[in-house]
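Supplementary Methods, section 5.1.

A reviewer requested that the exact input to the structure prediction be made available. We therefore reproduce it here, unchanged from the version used in the analyses.
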Amino acid sequence: MITCEPLTGALGAEVHGVQLADVDEATFDELRKAFLDHKVLVFRDQELSVEEHIAFGRRWGELEVHPFAPDNGHREIVKIHSTAERPYAAAKWHSDVTWRLEPSLGSILRGRIIPPVGGDTCFANAEAAYESLSDAWKERIEGLVAVHDFTHVFGGRLSPEELARKQAEHPPARHPVVRTHPETGARAIYTNRSFTTHIEGVSPDESAEILDHLERAIMSPDVQCRVRWRVDTVVMWDNRCTQHYATRDFWPAERLVERVTIQGDRPF
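The structure derived from this sequence is encoded token-by-token as follows.
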């Protein structure tokens, strides 16, 4: 039997009593419930091979192949690598791949090379952020649709020809500003700084005002938790109702984490 130690009152739990390389059906059922309850699960001291990482991800569903990640011999694995020469951190609040028509269900990230200090990942409960809005703001955004596009984040890496091809393969996606969780029915803010370009049906100024207001709700410490990495820590989060932010306070140290991403469904 697993035990869950909450990280904050808002979301997140450190899970004890499980090795992800060997999860039986009863334990997996416990993990599924914990995942829905806590939204972010942290597992320490998980000595997983790449194949075991992939296999655990497949327990939750089909895995994505990221169209902008370099091929590293395992198509399901995305390596997020920062060095002194090429510093990198996803230092904006976001949900993963919301530019897809069917964004991911969740991600499972493993720490491989961890800085001696810094490089934490912060998570926000987008359901709690929505509930924190005033009734007037909830009414204002009800039924609105936002457009999500990969181009701002990934377009600069591509030649004009490659960009045109990728834009044809992955056209802008329209998603509700407030998403309903398909398993729990809870509602959550579903716009983010990285991929949401604008809100349909309103002026550019009003679109910017709404997006800024929703981001400020996500940024409130009242709806957040923070995960400090160690080597062989695995963190899993529900991409349908959380956002995350990777801190960039560790340069010039090296940081390498590896991710598998579970396919999701179309937001409603």
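The longest helix spans residues 204-218. These observations are discussed further in the main text.
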